[in-house]
Structures are given as C-alpha cells and as structure tokens.
Amino acid sequence: MHFTEVSDLKKKIHWAESELDRAKRSIKNDEGELRQAKDDMAKAKEEATTFMSQRDSVNRALKDVKAELESRLKEKIIEEWKSSKEGEAHNVEIGLEATAVATSDTLRRVQIVLAEFAPSVGWDDIQGKYDSVLAKEREDLRAQLVAQDKVDGGVADLSDSGSASTSGSDSSNSGDDDAGSHVDVVDP
C-alpha cells in the first residue's frame, strides 16, 4: 500500500504543481492586464487634460469673439445714432451749450472791461445788439439744418437753447431786438 500512497501523493503533487503553474500564469496575466489598465488610465488622464486645455482655449476664444462682437455692435449702434436725426440734433445742442458757456464768460469779461474803460456806454444797449445777432445766427443755423434735412423742424429748437456761435457774424446785419438769449452779468 505504500506504493499506492506514493503514487497518490505524486498525482496530488503533480496536480498541485500544475495548479500552481496555472495560478502563476493567471497572476502574470492579471499583472499584464493591470499594467495595461494603468497605462490606459494614464493615457485617459493625459487625454482628459489635453481636452480640458483645448476646451479652455476654445472658451477663451469664444469669450474674446463675443466681447469683440459686443464692442462692434455698440460701436455700430453709436454710429447709427450719431447719424440719426436725434444724434445730429444732440450734437448741435452740445455744441451750442459749449458755445453758451464760452460766450457767457467772454461777455462777462467784456462787461467788466467796458465798465472800466467806457463807463458812459450802456451795457443794456450792447447786450440787446448781441442778443439780436445771436438770434439771427440761430435762425440761420436752423434754416441750414432744415434745408439739409438733418434735423426735423423742431427737434433741435435753437431759439430756446441760450447759446450759439458768433463766428462769422456781422452785427450790422441784424436789427432784431427780440433776442432769444440774455446773459446776466454781475459787476465784480
């Protein structure tokens, strides 16, 4: 019986060795699959990083394009408004307001100088003549704008604005005494 036991033990050892070899092959196979999975995961992370970087670049480019388009749209709206009747009327009013500020300062200075060097000359007469010249210039400007079809009849009401440019005026051309503007000057 000893021979049978040895034979059984040999079979069991052979079977165990064969199972061990199969297990080693399986472990080796699993280790290869694990390495492949790790490599695949590293590639996936790298691709994800690249994708996210590309996505960020595209988002930045889209943001820049959007900002550029918004800027161009704003510029176009402003340019269209500037060339509209309302925009042109606004520009005329701004110019007239600036002229009024400069003119009132100049008139104040002229009144001061006139009071010092020619006190006998009445300021009210000078103011009246100035107002009539100013009214004539306003009417001329209004007629010019209406003729050019730039400003609709009353859009830029120049008669009540209290300002106008005096360049190129000849005070002898106007006899109007119902002026649209009167600058009150205070003696210093």
TrEMBL record:
This protein's UniProt keywords: Coiled coil
Start-end of Low complexity biased regions: 156-174
Coiled coil ranges: 6-79
Source taxon at top rank: Eukaryota
Region (Disordered) residue spans: 152-188
Biased composition (Basic and acidic residues): 179-188
UniProt name for this protein: RAB6-interacting golgin
Gene name of this polypeptide: LOC130463060
